[in-house]
TrEMBL record:
Key words of the record: DNA-binding, Transcription, Transcription regulation
UniProt protein name: HTH tetR-type domain-containing protein
The organism of origin for this protein: Sphingobacterium ginsenosidimutans
Pfam family, one: TetR_N
Statement: the UniProt record of this protein carries the keyword Transcription: yes
Residues of the HTH tetR-type domain: 5-65
DNA-binding region ranges: 28-47
Cross-referenced InterPro entries: Homeodomain-like_sf (IPR009057), HTH_TetR (IPR001647)
Segments traversing the membrane: none
Amino acid sequence: MNKKEQVKERIGQAAMECFERYGLEKTTLDDIAKAVGLNKTSLYYYYKNKEDIFIEVAIREGESFINTLQQSTLKKKGVENQIGFYLESRLNYYTNVLNMNRVSVESLDKILPRFFELYDAMMVQEKDFLTKLLVQAIDREQLDMEDPENTASVLINFANALKHSTEQQAILKKQVEIDYAQSLRDTKFLVSLIFKGIRKQG
Protein backbone atom coordinates (compact mmCIF):
# COMPACT_ATOMS: atom_id res chain seq x y z
CA MET A 1 0.00 0.00 0.00
CA ASN A 2 1.54 3.31 -1.08
CA LYS A 3 1.32 6.58 0.84
CA LYS A 4 -1.74 7.85 -1.03
CA GLU A 5 -3.63 4.61 -0.37
CA GLN A 6 -2.65 4.76 3.30
CA VAL A 7 -4.00 8.31 3.60
CA LYS A 8 -7.21 7.33 1.81
CA GLU A 9 -7.68 4.41 4.19
CA ARG A 10 -7.25 6.77 7.17
CA ILE A 11 -9.76 9.18 5.64
CA GLY A 12 -12.22 6.34 5.06
CA GLN A 13 -11.98 5.11 8.64
CA ALA A 14 -12.38 8.61 10.06
CA ALA A 15 -15.28 9.37 7.73
CA MET A 16 -17.18 6.23 8.67
CA GLU A 17 -16.77 7.09 12.36
CA CYS A 18 -18.22 10.55 11.62
CA PHE A 19 -21.10 9.06 9.62
CA GLU A 20 -21.95 6.71 12.50
CA ARG A 21 -21.84 9.61 14.96
CA TYR A 22 -23.61 12.35 13.00
CA GLY A 23 -25.19 10.56 10.03
CA LEU A 24 -24.06 10.90 6.43
CA GLU A 25 -26.23 13.94 5.73
CA LYS A 26 -25.08 16.00 8.74
CA THR A 27 -21.40 15.12 8.47
CA THR A 28 -19.31 17.82 6.79
CA LEU A 29 -15.95 17.58 5.05
CA ASP A 30 -14.61 19.78 7.86
CA ASP A 31 -15.69 17.10 10.37
CA ILE A 32 -13.85 14.43 8.40
CA ALA A 33 -10.75 16.56 7.84
CA LYS A 34 -10.55 17.34 11.56
CA ALA A 35 -11.01 13.67 12.50
CA VAL A 36 -8.20 12.54 10.19
CA GLY A 37 -5.86 15.46 10.97
CA LEU A 38 -5.93 17.14 7.55
CA ASN A 39 -7.21 20.49 6.37
CA LYS A 40 -10.24 20.64 4.08
CA THR A 41 -8.13 21.66 1.07
CA SER A 42 -5.93 18.57 1.45
CA LEU A 43 -9.04 16.40 1.67
CA TYR A 44 -10.18 17.65 -1.75
CA TYR A 45 -7.00 16.19 -3.23
CA TYR A 46 -8.34 12.72 -2.42
CA TYR A 47 -12.12 13.12 -2.63
CA LYS A 48 -14.57 15.56 -4.22
CA ASN A 49 -17.26 15.08 -1.58
CA LYS A 50 -18.31 13.01 1.42
CA GLU A 51 -20.57 10.80 -0.73
CA ASP A 52 -17.53 9.63 -2.73
CA ILE A 53 -15.79 8.66 0.51
CA PHE A 54 -18.83 6.70 1.70
CA ILE A 55 -19.24 4.87 -1.61
CA GLU A 56 -15.56 3.92 -1.91
CA VAL A 57 -15.36 2.62 1.66
CA ALA A 58 -18.72 0.83 1.37
CA ILE A 59 -17.64 -0.87 -1.86
CA ARG A 60 -14.28 -1.91 -0.37
CA GLU A 61 -15.88 -3.28 2.78
CA GLY A 62 -18.62 -4.87 0.68
CA GLU A 63 -16.06 -6.77 -1.38
CA SER A 64 -14.50 -8.12 1.80
CA PHE A 65 -17.93 -9.07 3.14
CA ILE A 66 -18.91 -10.85 -0.10
CA ASN A 67 -15.71 -12.93 0.01
CA THR A 68 -16.42 -13.95 3.61
CA LEU A 69 -20.09 -14.60 2.82
CA GLN A 70 -19.19 -16.90 -0.05
CA GLN A 71 -17.04 -19.01 2.26
CA SER A 72 -19.90 -19.19 4.79
CA THR A 73 -22.37 -20.08 2.04
CA LEU A 74 -20.30 -23.08 0.98
CA LYS A 75 -20.75 -24.54 4.48
CA LYS A 76 -24.54 -24.65 4.11
CA LYS A 77 -26.18 -27.88 2.99
CA GLY A 78 -28.26 -27.93 -0.19
CA VAL A 79 -28.05 -25.50 -3.08
CA GLU A 80 -31.43 -23.87 -2.32
CA ASN A 81 -30.34 -23.21 1.27
CA GLN A 82 -27.00 -21.88 0.02
CA ILE A 83 -28.51 -19.44 -2.45
CA GLY A 84 -31.29 -18.37 -0.06
CA PHE A 85 -28.74 -17.73 2.68
CA TYR A 86 -26.49 -15.82 0.28
CA LEU A 87 -29.16 -13.47 -1.09
CA GLU A 88 -30.72 -12.81 2.33
CA SER A 89 -27.34 -12.15 3.97
CA ARG A 90 -26.23 -9.64 1.34
CA LEU A 91 -29.51 -7.70 1.69
CA ASN A 92 -29.21 -7.67 5.49
CA TYR A 93 -25.60 -6.48 5.23
CA TYR A 94 -26.50 -3.65 2.88
CA THR A 95 -29.35 -2.58 5.17
CA ASN A 96 -27.03 -2.62 8.19
CA VAL A 97 -24.45 -0.45 6.40
CA LEU A 98 -27.09 2.18 5.65
CA ASN A 99 -28.53 2.05 9.17
CA MET A 100 -25.14 2.09 10.92
CA ASN A 101 -24.05 5.16 8.98
CA ARG A 102 -27.48 6.77 9.31
CA VAL A 103 -27.94 7.29 5.61
CA SER A 104 -31.10 9.32 4.93
CA VAL A 105 -33.41 8.79 1.97
CA GLU A 106 -32.15 12.09 0.50
CA SER A 107 -28.52 10.98 0.75
CA LEU A 108 -29.33 7.58 -0.71
CA ASP A 109 -30.85 9.27 -3.76
CA LYS A 110 -27.50 11.02 -4.34
CA ILE A 111 -25.24 8.00 -3.92
CA LEU A 112 -27.20 5.26 -5.72
CA PRO A 113 -26.17 6.11 -9.33
CA ARG A 114 -22.47 6.20 -8.45
CA PHE A 115 -22.79 3.13 -6.24
CA PHE A 116 -24.29 1.01 -9.03
CA GLU A 117 -21.59 2.19 -11.42
CA LEU A 118 -18.85 0.89 -9.12
CA TYR A 119 -20.81 -2.19 -8.07
CA ASP A 120 -20.81 -3.74 -11.56
CA ALA A 121 -17.50 -5.58 -11.08
CA MET A 122 -18.69 -7.14 -7.82
CA MET A 123 -21.92 -8.23 -9.52
CA VAL A 124 -19.91 -10.26 -12.04
CA GLN A 125 -18.14 -12.02 -9.17
CA GLU A 126 -21.44 -12.73 -7.42
CA LYS A 127 -23.08 -14.16 -10.54
CA ASP A 128 -20.04 -16.39 -11.14
CA PHE A 129 -20.30 -17.70 -7.58
CA LEU A 130 -24.00 -18.55 -7.86
CA THR A 131 -23.38 -20.14 -11.27
CA LYS A 132 -20.79 -22.47 -9.72
CA LEU A 133 -23.25 -23.48 -6.97
CA LEU A 134 -25.89 -24.32 -9.56
CA VAL A 135 -23.46 -26.22 -11.79
CA GLN A 136 -22.32 -28.33 -8.82
CA ALA A 137 -25.95 -29.15 -8.01
CA ILE A 138 -26.58 -30.12 -11.65
CA ASP A 139 -23.51 -32.38 -11.59
CA ARG A 140 -24.92 -34.03 -8.45
CA GLU A 141 -28.20 -34.49 -10.37
CA GLN A 142 -30.12 -32.38 -7.85
CA LEU A 143 -31.33 -29.84 -10.41
CA ASP A 144 -32.87 -30.16 -13.86
CA MET A 145 -31.86 -27.05 -15.82
CA GLU A 146 -29.96 -26.05 -18.95
CA ASP A 147 -28.73 -22.51 -18.27
CA PRO A 148 -27.24 -22.09 -14.77
CA GLU A 149 -25.42 -18.90 -15.77
CA ASN A 150 -28.62 -17.14 -16.81
CA THR A 151 -30.44 -18.42 -13.70
CA ALA A 152 -27.69 -17.02 -11.48
CA SER A 153 -27.95 -13.70 -13.28
CA VAL A 154 -31.73 -13.62 -12.82
CA LEU A 155 -31.41 -14.38 -9.10
CA ILE A 156 -28.94 -11.53 -8.48
CA ASN A 157 -30.72 -9.08 -10.78
CA PHE A 158 -34.13 -9.72 -9.25
CA ALA A 159 -32.79 -9.50 -5.69
CA ASN A 160 -31.18 -6.15 -6.57
CA ALA A 161 -34.32 -4.96 -8.36
CA LEU A 162 -36.50 -5.72 -5.33
CA LYS A 163 -34.13 -3.79 -3.09
CA HIS A 164 -33.88 -0.91 -5.54
CA SER A 165 -37.66 -0.72 -5.95
CA THR A 166 -38.05 -0.41 -2.17
CA GLU A 167 -35.49 2.40 -2.14
CA GLN A 168 -37.11 4.28 -5.02
CA GLN A 169 -40.53 4.09 -3.39
CA ALA A 170 -39.09 5.46 -0.15
CA ILE A 171 -37.40 8.30 -2.06
CA LEU A 172 -40.59 9.19 -3.93
CA LYS A 173 -42.68 9.06 -0.75
CA LYS A 174 -39.97 10.97 1.16
CA GLN A 175 -39.99 8.41 3.94
CA VAL A 176 -37.69 8.96 6.90
CA GLU A 177 -36.50 5.34 6.97
CA ILE A 178 -36.47 2.50 4.45
CA ASP A 179 -38.09 -0.78 5.44
CA TYR A 180 -36.54 -3.69 3.52
CA ALA A 181 -38.70 -6.35 5.19
CA GLN A 182 -40.91 -6.82 2.13
CA SER A 183 -37.84 -7.02 -0.13
CA LEU A 184 -36.49 -9.80 2.08
CA ARG A 185 -39.80 -11.71 1.98
CA ASP A 186 -40.01 -11.30 -1.80
CA THR A 187 -36.41 -12.51 -2.21
CA LYS A 188 -37.17 -15.65 -0.18
CA PHE A 189 -40.30 -16.26 -2.27
CA LEU A 190 -38.36 -15.76 -5.51
CA VAL A 191 -35.76 -18.37 -4.49
CA SER A 192 -38.43 -20.92 -3.48
CA LEU A 193 -40.36 -20.30 -6.71
CA ILE A 194 -37.32 -20.79 -8.95
CA PHE A 195 -36.18 -23.92 -7.15
CA LYS A 196 -39.66 -25.40 -7.30
CA GLY A 197 -39.29 -25.30 -11.08
CA ILE A 198 -35.70 -26.56 -11.39
CA ARG A 199 -35.48 -29.12 -8.57
CA LYS A 200 -35.07 -32.61 -10.01
CA GLN A 201 -38.07 -34.80 -9.28
CA GLY A 202 -37.86 -38.40 -8.14
